[in-house]
């Protein structure tokens, strides 16, 4: 593989840049003076207008961003943001961006998301989450990238009854294809670190919510339904709990692992960390908190458990605290208020 011009500025590659977490990460990196190359395929799993709106917040022109494999650049916060629309599974095109830019680190957040959707469209998960991730690993290997941080998921724990979930727990029993692809990513990353000597860090995200959040997630679904006097679906009759984690706390953890060296450098090149709030909330309590913020009662439609879903999530974050001083700070009340403020500003502009 040919190398890039050594005079080029160092750039951090963020895949899934038009996604919820990816957008916030790009913004945080730009604010901190880093040049960013964002990649996303803008698939229609949910409203593409929301994805383009996120990119516009980063200074990226929508009409230019719609073109596949063409770079669109803006200057924001005094640093350079470049966007390219591309599929990770495109084995021919992906290496070209590594040739064209002096990429220092990679954060792979691109994936086909959603536990429930994996029951309907399994092929999308294999294409993006397995084939796409392999291509990222191959590019990191061939272009001598020293660090890859990538998104895993709390879903790898399945219906484990050992709580809080700890990274050393057995995760050989995923209960959705989405979870199985994330477990596969962890194994693939471990193998590449072992064989080729570059650092890989997998972050097991726990139910991320906040401004610019995904429309298929509970925070968005509940708020939208309550505000429009529509019933909300409460699965397993409300007998669920989630380790809801505010986006700012997630981004703080991603930045720490991406930009800094961990405390213990004697650990293996391949690492896994839980990244959550470590304070699980019962689903009905979560709904009540949203009701309080909206000053409006929800019409609850009690539903049975959905296939592929889990009863609880609860992150043990001791390892991330020890190695990167991670400490979530946002309460559920503060996080919900922040989301509702954004929702009103984005959807109720008039």
Automatic annotation (TrEMBL):
SUPFAM superfamilies: NAD(P)-binding Rossmann-fold domains (SSF51735)
NAD as UniProt keyword: yes
Keyword Cytoplasm attached: no
Domain of life of the organism encoding this protein: Bacteria
Keywords, comma-separated and alphabetical: NAD
The protein's name: NAD-dependent epimerase/dehydratase family protein
Residue span(s) of domain NAD-dependent epimerase/dehydratase: 12-276
Natural source organism: Subsaximicrobium wynnwilliamsii
PANTHER family tied to this protein: EPIMERASE-RELATED
């Amino acid at each position: 593989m040919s190398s890039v011009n050594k005079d080029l500025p160092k750039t951090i590659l963020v895949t899934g840049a038009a996604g919820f977490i990816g957008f916030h990460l790009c913004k945080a990196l730009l604010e901190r003076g880093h040049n960013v190359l964002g990649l996303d395929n803008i698939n229609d799993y949910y409203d593409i207008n929301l994805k383009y709106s996120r990119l516009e917040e980063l200074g990226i022109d929508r009409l230019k961003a719609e073109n596949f494999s063409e770079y669109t650049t803006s200057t924001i916060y005094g640093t350079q943001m470049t966007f390219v629309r591309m599929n990770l599974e495109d084995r021919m095109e992906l290496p070209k961006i590594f040739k064209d830019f002096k990429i220092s680190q990679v954060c792979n957040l691109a994936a086909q998301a959603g536990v429930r959707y994996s029951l309907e469209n399994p092929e999308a998960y294999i294409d993006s989450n397995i084939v796409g991730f392999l291509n990222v690993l191959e590019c990191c290997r061939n272009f001598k990238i020293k660090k890859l941080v990538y998104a895993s998921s709390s879903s790898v724990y399945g219906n484990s009854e050992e709580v809080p979930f700890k990274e050393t727990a057995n995760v050989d029993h995923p209960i959705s294809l989405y979870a199985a692809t994330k477990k596969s990513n962890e194994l693939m990353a471990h193998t590449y670190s072992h064989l080729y000597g570059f650092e890989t860090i997998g972050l097991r995200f726990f139910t991320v919510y906040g401004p610019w959040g995904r429309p298929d997630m509970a925070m968005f679904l509940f708020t939208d339904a309550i505000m429009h006097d529509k019933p909300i679906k409460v699965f397993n009759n409300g007998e669920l709990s989630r380790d809801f984690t505010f986006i700012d706390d997630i981004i703080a953890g991603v930045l720490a692992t991406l930009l800094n060296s961990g405390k213990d450098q004697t650990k293996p090149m391949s690492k896994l960390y839980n990244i959550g709030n470590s304070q699980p909330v019962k689903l009905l309590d979560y709904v009540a908190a949203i009701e309080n913020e909206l000053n409006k009662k929800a019409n609850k439609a009690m539903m049975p458990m959905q296939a592929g879903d889990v009863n609880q999530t609860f992150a043990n974050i001791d390892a991330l605290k020890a190695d990167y001083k991670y400490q979530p700070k946002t309460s559920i009340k503060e996080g919900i208020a922040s989301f509702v403020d954004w929702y009103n500003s984005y959807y109720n502009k008039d």
